[in-house]
Amino acid sequence: MNEDRTMAGREIRFGNDEIIVSKTDIKGHITYANRVFCRVASYCESELLGKPHNIIRHPDMPRCVFKFLWDTIQSGNEVFAYVINATKYGDFYWVFAHVTPTFNDAGSIIGYHSSRRVPDRSVVSKIKGLYKMLLAEERKHRNPKEQWRASLPKLIDFLQEQGKTYEELIFSLHKGAENAATAGQRAPGQSGKTSQVCA
User: Fold this and answer.
1) CATH number of the domain enclosing 70
2) pTM of the predicted model, to two decimals?
């Protein structure tokens, strides 16, 4: 993440029929970014390729959740999550992410594939509360490793109280939202600086 970037606080949205897609190597460096990714995050493809995927990390995304996600995919499993990302200009966008390992013929992980869709707004409003609690603990510490080490037990405690894994929590919220009325879903739109002219 670009620590010098100012978070402007404008939310960027993308279409319900659009999918943000990226691929990385085993160290998390971007090897592919589709046009939707580039447009929403306001980067040229050349600015993303070879860069760590956390170039889009938003400071309101708890480090312990990323630690959990990274550990999950490194173990060879897929993971689903609600994530807030930052654009090049400090705006933000929420996604419902599905991340999977990519394997070679020998069964070894050679990279990761991420597909991000438009999130359910009712789930976003609920997940914000959990992330706010985790961030409050992380902000007591300065070192990133100390931050996720301090907040991860709180995430685990929360999940145990709910009697769910993180993925089960996400899908229970998602299913509840799908069962609710969807007629009032907002039309896709965009705001803030989403255009990026590339040479």
Assistant:
1) 3.30.450.20
2) 0.84
